[in-house]
Amino acid sequence: MFIHPLGPEGAELRPLEPWQADEFLAHMDRAREYAGKRNGLPDVVRDRAGSRAFLQTYADRQAADSGRLYGIWQDGTLVGGVLFRTFDPAQGVAEAGCWLEPSAVGRGLVTRACRTIIDWAFTRRGMRRVEWHVATDNAPSIAVARRLGMTREGVMRSAFVHRGRRLDMELWAVLSEEWGGPGE
């Protein structure tokens, strides 16, 4: 296991694994209303079984080298996470994503955590492109994409259904040759 510090405030990035299902569920309960506005994760993780199943899905994806999941802890409490929803080494393309609970908003935790995993994908795994898919009305997530140095490539109209509503999604991406590193 690794622990990666995310700054001087006591925040850490760590793997998030099936054995942490109870902690993850408690976190989702705190994040449900806020994160659920734009993210389907709180709708999937509603009980211990759903929590464990979601975490196991990402453990399986990691074993298959097709996805990864990390938690963000602040002072020992799980407050959010980042992930590679998809990870395709053969094509050199990954899709990154994130979520937070309200207590962690506005501290730069997601940006620092994403910089860490994107830097790893480019420098250690040889990925060529990292994408960010975001609803057109999700200003906080679009701001993260900008801070990560991503370029808005277009809008995918009516591309995602969230809670019965079809959403337009922006596609943002950064290429390995554009990447400035974790400290940019």
From TrEMBL:
Q: Which InterPro entries match?
A: Acyl_CoA_acyltransferase (IPR016181), GNAT_dom (IPR000182), Ribosomal_N-acetyltransferase (IPR051908)
SUPFAM superfamilies referenced in this protein's UniProt entry, alphabetically: Acyl-CoA N-acyltransferases (Nat)
**Which residues belong to any copy of the N-acetyltransferase domain?**
11-174
Q: Which Gene3D superfamilies match?
A: 3.40.630.30
- Top-level division of the source organism's lineage: Bacteria
Membrane-crossing segments per the record: none
Q: What is this protein called?
A: GNAT family N-acetyltransferase
